[in-house]
C-alpha cells in the first residue's frame, strides 16, 4: 500500500518575493503554523508515515522544523507554551523524514524525479504544500485519494473546477466521467489559454503516482516555460494505461500568492485557531 509522501519544495516562490528571498515558501505561516506542517499532517492523517521532502538551496529551515530543538524545549518545559510545540513534536515522533536536493530548478516533473531515490519502486503520494487543502467535514484530500487508489490502482490527480479565465495557471484535463466526481483522463494541457483549455477542470497540488512515472518523466523533454512538466509524463501514462482525475471534497487555498494566502489565513484563524483545532 501507499506509505510514502513526496513534498516537492524546491521552487523559488517568486510570486511571494521578498518574503521568500531567504526563506522557503513552505515555511510561510498560516496563523501560527507553517504550510509544510499542514501538508505533513494531511499525509499523516491519510495513514502515510514516510515523508520525503525535495529541497533546494536556502531551504534548510524545512529540515530544522522537523527536528528536536533541545534548547527551545528546555526553555518552555512546564510552561503554558509547551502546547504550541505538541503538534510538531507528535509528527517528529510518529513519522520519518528524509530529504534530497533538487540542484537545478527545472520544474515540478524534474523535482518529482529528484525524489526517486527516496521513494524507490512503489506507489506514492505527492503534496504541494503551497496548495493548502482542508476538509472540515471529514477525510482530508489525500485520505480520499488513497481510498480511490485502493479501488483503481492507478495514478490519480486531484482536480477542481476553476473559472475559464484562470485556466492558464493550471494543468487542465479532459476526460470521461466514470462515476460521481471521478474522470478517466484522456487529455491534459499545461497552462492553456481559456480558448485552448479542454475543460475547466484544473489539476491542483495532490497526486497519487505509480512508480512507472519516474521513467516517463526521465523521457520527457522540457515543455511550457522550459520546465519538465509532470502533466506531460502523466499524459503518457494516461495513453499507456489509466490516469484518474478526482474532484475532491473540501476547500483549497492557493497560498503561493497573496490573495489565496490571505483567504487561508482568515479561514484558519476563524475555523481552526480560535477553536483550538
Ligand atoms: P510553483 O509553480 O508554485 O513554482 O511550483 P514556485 O517556484 O514554487 O513559485 P512561483 O510560481 O515562482 O511563485 C509548484 C510546486 O512545485 C515545486 C514548488 O516548490 C511548489 O511546491 N517546484 C517547482 C519544485 O520543487 N522544483 C521546481 O523546479 C519547480
Summarize this structure briefly.
The protein is α/β, with parallel strands linked by helices and 277 residues long. It has helices at residues 35-45, 60-65, 70-76, 82-94, 108-114, 116-119, 141-152, 213-218, 230-240, 258-273, and strands at 4-8, 29-30, 33-34, 50-55, 96-101, 124-127, 131-134, 155-161, 171-179, 182-190, 201-209, 243-247, 251-254.
Characterize the structure shown.
Helices cover 34% and strands 26% of the residues. The model has no long low-confidence stretch (mean pLDDT 95). The strands form three sheets. It has a nine-stranded mixed beta sheet with strand order 5-4-1-6-11-8-12-10-9, sandwiched between helices. A two-stranded antiparallel ribbon has the order 2-3. The protein has a single domain (4-273), classed as Spore Coat Polysaccharide Biosynthesis Protein SpsA, Chain A, CATH 3.90.550. It has 277 residues and is of the alpha/beta class. β9 (171-179) and β10 form a beta hairpin. It has helices at residues 35-45, 60-65, 70-76, 82-94, 108-114, 116-119, 141-152, 213-218, 230-240, 258-273; strands at 4-8, 29-30, 33-34, 50-55, 96-101, 124-127, 131-134, 155-161, 171-179, 182-190, 201-209, 243-247, 251-254. Uridine 5'-triphosphate binds next to α5. Residues 8-16, 25, 54, 102, 105-108, 110-111, 128, 130, 256 line the site of uridine 5'-triphosphate (UTP).
